[in-house]
Amino acid sequence: MLKRLLVILAVVASGAFAASIGDVSSIKTLKVERGLTEVAKGCIECHAKETPGHVNDWKDSRHGHVGVSCIDCHSVKKDNPMAGQNCPGVKGTDTYVSMLVSPKTCGRCHPNEVHEFQQSGHARAALQIRAKASMESLMHHYEGRGNPDLQDSPEATGCMQCHGSIIEVGKDGRPTAETWPNYGIGNVYPDGGVGNCKSCHSAHKFSIAEARKPAACASCHLGPDHPDIEIYNNSMHGHIFNAEGSTWNYDSAPDAWEPGDYRAPTCATCHMSGIGDLTTTHNISRRLKWNIWAPISKTREGGYETAVKDFENGKITKGNALAGHPDGSEAARSEMEQVCKSCHVTLHTKSFFKMADKHVELYNTYAVDAKKMIDELGKKGLMKKDKWADEAFKVWYHIWHHQGRRMRQGALMGGPDYAHWHGVFELQQNIRELEAIYNRRMKTGKIEE
Ligand code: HEC
Ligand code: HEC
Ligand code: HEC
Ligand code: HEC
Ligand code: HEC
Ligand code: HEC
Ligand code: HEC
Ligand code: HEC
Q1: I want to staple 406 with a disulfide (CB 3.0 to 4.6 A). Which of 17, 115, 340, 423 is the partner?
Q2: How far is 415 from 436, CA to CA, in rounded Å?
């Protein structure tokens, strides 16, 4: 960590700092008086006119206050695959810049956060899509209709914005439209960096307060297959946040954000923040006991994520589906329970998790039965080749990917509408539908038209 000694400079602007955020016209006169090299000052002064939004966000950030400036994040060595001189301010000089800033750059000053991030399920988000042939065929063949010119748009406008992409650059070091821009969490950069720090701390504020609010997760964790923000809003914690969260304090130092600053937990409190004896972690998988996105939930005994390491060795892998706490699922659950401890008594927490875990086990009984029917139909040649046209496959997909995830996530995060109406209620209807198709096909030996 470069610490605060990093040139505490006064970025003095002629009247500009009094201006309110958003009023970008007033920062055109920004003058950097001391503490930075001439080149570094040049970036800020010219960009205050050319791209005032970036400078305005940056000058109000911690980085602005401690003198970490444009050049610290955007300048790269000439031989970096992302290097270019497409910025007119550096053309013909010996400075090379890239508009891509990979976690490798952040890691120069924040090595722990980057390291922890790489041990999390977030780190595999882009890699695992490319590692699976079934995902490629969904995005390009089915959704993109195999159209050579148009087949990349489903990934670029959808999946990639949440999962990230394997970013490709042209000869000029600039990223292709098929792979950038995006705010996806698991971006793989041409310099080998994996992850995306701006997914939660948007550029150029890089604010800790922003990342502590549910909004920082809600842009990805929503919708029919992972309605986490909806579940949160449905929970008693979300109820309290929505009633009074705008008055809470989000600015405490890392590890010092404690009950009192807030009355109910946000996503970050339970999955990341230091609270009580727990320390902050950028590994959002660390406190998870179950793997509840999977078709059949198992407890997480796989240690840390390994996708990044494999990528560095040149392989694209699916990642470690059971990654979590290095000491296994009970250690993970015990850390999660420590979160609750600051506000609830032991019996409250234990009883809550006892019934939530049973709901996961109940889900598994549905999934095992459904999978058995699908496998049997497959063995007997009673599934269509085009699985997205097969009624049995579609029902199975909704069982695990939609209703089943909602049922499990709703139970474990206290959202009754998702545990029940959008969850197990729909599941008991689905399993009947699947049984009917199964019985019909087994009896007639034919796939219905
Ligand atoms: C702490 C590191 C950091 C600092 C300091 C920083 N940037 Fe950035 N910048 C980023 C990141 C991260 C991105 C997002 C890149 C991506 O999408 O992969 C970005 C994106 C950009 C982009 C391209 C994206 C767009 O929206 O147009 C420009 C241009 C840019 N920054 C200019 C600047 C300028 C000018 C400054 C100084 C006032 C600055 N940056 C300071 C990290 C930084
Ligand atoms: C004399 C003015 C000027 C100076 C000095 C300057 N820039 Fe730029 N920069 C620009 C303009 C203009 C653009 C293009 C904006 C656009 O495409 O809309 C640009 C673009 C960029 C981009 C995007 C590059 C791309 O591939 O499109 C980055 C990153 C950037 N500048 C960073 C910097 C950094 C870092 C410095 C200091 C080392 C710097 N700039 C100095 C004017 C300047
Ligand atoms: C040259 C070193 C350097 C680089 C590169 C750098 N940072 Fe920082 N960052 C700092 C310093 C110094 C602080 C202030 C630490 C403090 O307040 O104790 C800071 C603070 C932060 C904070 C806390 C902000 C707050 O609201 O308190 C976040 C978040 C952050 N950086 C994210 C990033 C990200 C993301 C990147 C890469 C895009 C990055 N940093 C790159 C040095 C750096
Ligand atoms: C830019 C999109 C994005 C944002 C923002 C985001 N996530 Fe995620 N998250 C994902 C994706 C994509 C996955 C699935 C990764 C995978 O398994 O491939 C995921 C997975 C997870 C998982 C499960 C990891 C595992 O090991 O199975 C947790 C827990 C999680 N996110 C929590 C959070 C929290 C808490 C926040 C906010 C503080 C957050 N996420 C912000 C996209 C995002
Ligand atoms: C709105 C954001 C968003 C979009 C768009 C999105 N995903 Fe996801 N995806 C997520 C989140 C969040 C999770 C984590 C769910 C969980 O942990 O319960 C996830 C989980 C997954 C998983 C399971 C995790 C794993 O490690 O295997 C796969 C596979 C996946 N997504 C593939 C895709 C594909 C392919 C697309 C596009 C066709 C896509 N996703 C579109 C956010 C998104
Ligand atoms: C999933 C959302 C998310 C992502 C992605 C993320 N952060 Fe954070 N970050 C947070 C939250 C939440 C906090 C505040 C934790 C707390 O309550 O103290 C934080 C805090 C920080 C801090 C303050 C010191 C600390 O560790 O608490 C730094 C520095 C930081 N993040 C850097 C990064 C860097 C570098 C990356 C990219 C590798 C990154 N963050 C990616 C959510 C995120
Ligand atoms: C009260 C604490 C709490 C809050 C608040 C909370 N979560 Fe969770 N979350 C949990 C618990 C507990 C689990 C299940 C952990 C396990 O596996 O035992 C979980 C599971 C998850 C999963 C599923 C991981 C998987 O295996 O597929 C995701 C994704 C997730 N949370 C994201 C979020 C997001 C996003 C928010 C905010 C909108 C949020 N959580 C709010 C406690 C919380
Ligand atoms: C910052 C304090 C805080 C933390 C941390 C916290 N909660 Fe809560 N929780 C509350 C408050 C306040 C209520 C509302 C209590 C009431 O009305 O009786 C609540 C309500 C609940 C409820 C609804 C039932 C009830 O008694 O109202 C459940 C279930 C719950 N919490 C579970 C958890 C679990 C599990 C964790 C840890 C994963 C956790 N909470 C962490 C503050 C917290």
Answers
A1: 423
A2: 31
Report whether 446 contacts 438 (CB < 8 A). no
Ligand nearest to the CA of 332: 7
Kindly give, in sequence order, each residue whose CB lies less than 8 Å from that of residue 389, ignoring residues fewer than 6 positions away.
Answer: none
The pLDDT tens digits of the residues spanning 21-65 come to 333 333 444 555 557 899 999 999 999 999 999 999 999 999 999
What mean pLDDT comes out for the span 422-440?
98
Ligand 2 neighbourhood includes 43 CB (under 6 angstroms): yes
Contacts of residue 58, Cβ cutoff 8 Å, sequence gap at least 6: 64, 69, 70, 204, 205
Ligand 1 center–CA 183 separation, angstroms: 13
Distance separating alpha carbons of residues 4 and 280, to the nearest angstrom: 20
The whole-number pLDDT of residue 315 equals 87
Q: What angle do CA 233, 225, 361 make, to 5 degrees?
A: 90
Average confidence score pLDDT of the chain: 92
Distance 105 CA to ligand 2 centre (A): 18
Give the torsion sign (CA, 274, 277, 279, 284).
Answer: negative
- 116, 127 in Cβ contact below 8 A? no
Question: 86 C-alpha vs ligand 3 centroid, how far in Å?
Answer: 26
| Residues recorded for the chain | 449
244 vs 234, 263, 399, CA distance in Å?
15, 9, 36
CB atoms within 10 A of CB 427: 23
Q: Is the CB of 220 under 6 A from ligand 5?
A: yes
Are 49 and 31 a contacting pair, CB within 8 Å? no
- For 258, other C-beta atoms within 10 Å of its C-beta total 15
Distance 71 CA to ligand 1 centre (A): 10
